[in-house]
Amino acid sequence: MKNALILKEKIQRKDVTVAIVGLGYVGLPLAIGLSRAGSRVVGVDTDPQRVAALEAGQSYIRDIPAATLAPLVQAGRLTATTDYAATGAADAIIICVPTPSTRMKAPDLSYIEAACRAIIPHLHPGMVVVLQSTTYPGTTEELVRPLLEQSGLRAGRDFALAFSPERIDPGNPHFSAHNTPKVVGGIDPDSTEAAALLFGLLVPNEQIHRVSGPRAAEMCKLLENVFRSVNIALVNELATLCNRMGLDVWEVLDAAATKPFGFMPFYPGPGVGGHCIPVDPYYLSWKAREYDFYTRFIELAAEVNSTMPAYTVGKIAQALNRQGKPFQGARVLVLGAAFKRDIDDSRNSPAVEIMKLLRTRGAEVTYHDPHVAEVLFEEGGGGNGVMRSVPLTTELLATQDCVCLAVAHSTVDTGWIVKESRTLIDATGVTRFLDGDQSHVIRL
Ligand SMILES: NC(=O)c1ccc[n+]([C@@H]2O[C@H](COP(=O)([O-])OP(=O)(O)OC[C@H]3O[C@@H](n4cnc5c(N)ncnc54)[C@H](O)[C@@H]3O)[C@@H](O)[C@H]2O)c1
Description:
- The protein is built from 15 helices and 15 strands.
- It is α/β, with parallel strands linked by helices.
- The chain has an eight-stranded mixed beta sheet, with helices on both faces. A five-stranded parallel beta sheet has the order 10-9-13-14-15, with helices on one face.
- It is elongated and about 75 Å long.
- It binds nicotinamide-adenine-dinucleotide (NAD).
- The site of nicotinamide-adenine-dinucleotide has 26 residues, from α5.
- Nicotinamide-adenine-dinucleotide (NAD) is lined by residues 21-27, 44-47, 50, 96-99, 111, 114-115, 133-134, 166, 168, 170, 275-276.
């Protein structure tokens, strides 16, 4: 229990410095949480703009108000830098860098690798290193461990090494770092205990769930995301079937959701987006092939979910058809560009995919999103397109041949949109809660 004991004593003396590597949607809230819990936190990020913003007490993540951040920066409890030398003064390092996939859907671990290489010169005995980026089972032991051991120090003997999945749900007002249980799995019992002590700064001990090792913790995160992907795909498939059968899938889902046991409602939509659901399951299917195993559920779910933007565009075609209009030259307004409600993140957003599809069909597309000022996307021929959010007015709604509600942010007045739109495609299902004439509304 050597490394865990060193950390325990530091925590008891309230003398802990934690380095957070990667200050994004995951790293920044964690940095704030640990800093508020009394640790000194140094954030290391390769993006100088993010570092400069943090140093000035400014937040670049919508969920995090500057009023939360600035006092911690002013008090010197939270600092940021691009220089990895700062990790040398830390008792613990938590790695929260991106884990995207390549165009061929293979894991891209280059960010984790770069972070580990940069940590090597600053690793010291007694340190606790935790990987928190989502990845396939085996990454901590097969990639991170050998890289960090290039320092000459041995994991388990000289420093603790663990994996702990991140469960943050940006935009969720009910669950944050303080009340979401943490799963930890170290390469040995000492490492598990050290990681548990570290996250014990954020959540009570009874909310820390220890597993046998990093691989179980890595798999736990992928299970959580595959579970969502598969269930979303199931309802998306049912939505398209209900449509053919002349049934309202929302009515069916609301009815099924009255069952108090054995059923958990998931809802259809224009597709899945973000950094997790469209990406993480592929990490597992890629790793599974090493074991001659084909993860059919994962591939099938991804396939079904990836058809939903085109399915939504099919609904827009139906609406235009009713007016005797082709796509070419039709004015279509897409409401929402974020990948889900009440967030400002448009990575892999199905709403953006819908805009791309509409543009390639010749429609005049505009979008409005109070949280996403502009979207960039690849267009045919290797070029990049850019679109900017337009103000949402009665005049704008009146001039559109079709309005597509792709994301129902809570600040957007849906009743007013229904009233002012000529034709509305509701990909979110929220209009089912509204009264009044909806003869011009088409739901998925
Ligand atoms: N966003 C979520 O809701 C969420 C939820 C659970 C898990 N995750 C996982 O957490 C990890 C981080 O995701 P995120 O959404 O915070 O990503 P992000 O893109 O918002 O932030 C990552 C940050 O890391 C920085 N960075 C990149 N390379 C670096 C390096 N070598 N050294 C230091 N900093 C570096 C980037 O500049 C960026 O600020 C990913 O593995 C993701 O799958 C994300």
